[in-house]
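In this notation, each integer encodes one residue's backbone shape. One such record reads:

___
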Amino acid sequence: MKKLIIKVESGLLDQNLDQPIDAEAEKLRNKYEDKKFSRLLLMQLAFQSLGVVYGDLGTSPLYVFYNTFPDGIEDPEDLIGALSLIIYSLTLIPLLKYVLIVCRANDNGQGGTFALYSLLCRHAKVKTIPNQDLTDEQLTTYSRSTFHETSFAGKTKRWLEEHPFRKNALLVLVLVGSSMVIGDGILTPAISVLSAVQGIKLDHPSMSSDVVVLVAVVILVGLFSMQHHGVDRVSWLFAPIVLLWFLLIGGIGLFNIWKYDTGVLKAISPVYIYRYFRRGGRDSWLSLGGIMLSITGTEALFADLSHFPVPSIQIAFTTVVFPCLLFAYSGQAAYLMKNTSHVVDAFYSSIPDCIYWPVLLVATAAAVVASQATICATFSLIKQALALGCFPRVKIVHTSKRFLSHIYIPDINWILMILCVGVTAGFKNQNQIGNASGTAVVIVMLVTTLLMILVMLLIWRCHWILVLIFTGLSLVVEGTYFSSVLCKVNQGGWVPLVIALAFFIIMYVWHYGTKKRYEFEVHSKVSMAWILGLGPSLGLVRVPGIGLVYTELARGVPHIFSHFITNLPAIHSIVVFVCVKYLPVHSVPEGERFLVKQIGPVNFRMFRCAVRYGYKDLHKRDESFEKKLLEGLNTFVRLESLMDGCSDSDDYSMCDQETEQPNVLPNHSSNTMPLNMDGTVSSGDSIVSLNGHLHNNTDMVSSGFLSNVAEVNELEFLGVCRDAGVVHILGNTEVLAHRDSKLYKKIAIDYIYAFLRKICRQNSAALNVPHESLLNVGQIIHV
């Protein structure tokens, strides 16, 4: 059976969205991959990554020692042990695990929990909503490695796929990690800004703590209120601010080591970790919750990976971030060795008086940059969750014309602001906020470790010994930290758990409802036998016009269509089923976004158009969408004579290319019709150009392509329908649980899912359907 692949010049659904946005970052990544750009450019990218990736990690010295010793320092030797723990924590987690290993598991430059999940979904059938088909796997961005079924990777793949419980468990694991990232997006701005402005009180001891909290709240409200303007105009300042901050804390640390106690450098020996635990016992173990804060921001390092190649991230960390952090913590420890009573304000107390106020200003600016990066990472995660069907429909606004990742989600922004201000004003204490932040961070790290085990086995196909070493080291360190922060649940650690639980319920119930609705659509789709039995008129009056019926089905005729034609006396002369679906890829190229199929015989005039997106792409209304879709249908009719027959299994892909010269080249080696690089369509008999108009070249009409009168009539008919207008038909579906369903299912579907559907954006708004040509068809389904 022949397959036809059609490319039409540009004008896809959101052409003016995806192409210019993030083009600069995409070009830079491509240049790196091709090894064509200079070392100078790589250093420039490393410099820019400081402002986007390392702000959160860099502001940790503001509050680590206070949260480690909230009750004071009893023995100065404890500082050496704590410093040694910090040194090895920074070495094992951010440096070895994330910078050198986890960052390599990016999905075409995209990082984060959902990026790892997308990688796994491409290599194993673990996606819980199976809306993919084989044609999706032919995308150029659908990259995956191949392995033998009898290999260990093949066995791992079968183990994941053979039971639905394991697929669901993997999804739950991803949602838990994502929920904790959202919680960290609330806590990081709170603790960073509050710790930065805490320095005001050191210069004015009589100032009330409430004033400090008020200043922090004002800064936070201003930060969230400015989100809708975007950061494109001021983002060029982020990297210089963070670089200046690292140089300041590193320089101050070196000064304090030289001035107060060079003996702190012996903390490089892990022996002092053993002595620290032996001397302090349970108290030393509980202090791990504070030491854990020295590596907060590490997850943001991976989540904010999208704009920079991995080597630039590695260069920035190894040459600037890592040494400056070591100097900063060592300098504070040296100062505290002589001033143990100053642990509450360890950072600001250790600053020389002559540069106190400049450092305070830079610290506040760095805290704002760190908060901004965390907020943007939260927005990006919400967008990825929405694309994979794990979050209610929310409005997403682009704030930059150059970078795709610069987005703004109004509803989420105000929720984050309210919760962040509530945490700051409610606790008024960076110790409790630190306990909360540590709980969120360590859970995210544990989730990443578990996902990385699958990535190393299934995708990288590492030897099991290497996987065991990575797993053992990660779980020992992170599990120890996790056991410590669990003991501080009643001291603020409950906050991220409550926040994460709320977001987890929202995401899981929404995904559960979406999955049940999709399963209903699959099981109740209309059979082709029934459609064929109605005849070309479908048993109705076929009025001039084109009807675009939106459906979630990638194959088959949706149930809503039968509901429509049984309740209305007429249907449009041309019907196109439009399926907008998101795939587990970072993006779908413009030229491969549309996949067009014909349903049934030609005289039924029914088509399918699958519009495919990646989790990085945004669905935005493009005024030329209808025009380009009709151009694709027009081109299809012109090439109809090349086909032997039509059915729902025949694929027609509309892509983003057009040619200027026709060609006729025989090719008898294949019975398919792939797209050539010159924009032609090949078949088993000939290759015909997809030019936008008919050519009077008699050499290419041996099969009577231009002389087909029926084809000319079809073209005229298509023009008449186009002039009559296009109507967008959407199903306004109410989902209810069966009466005999279990209680948990009734609560999830009838209450939580129904409530989320009421408060989220309407489907027509999410699909950017013009209201002037919208037709809603209501129905009630029971799942």
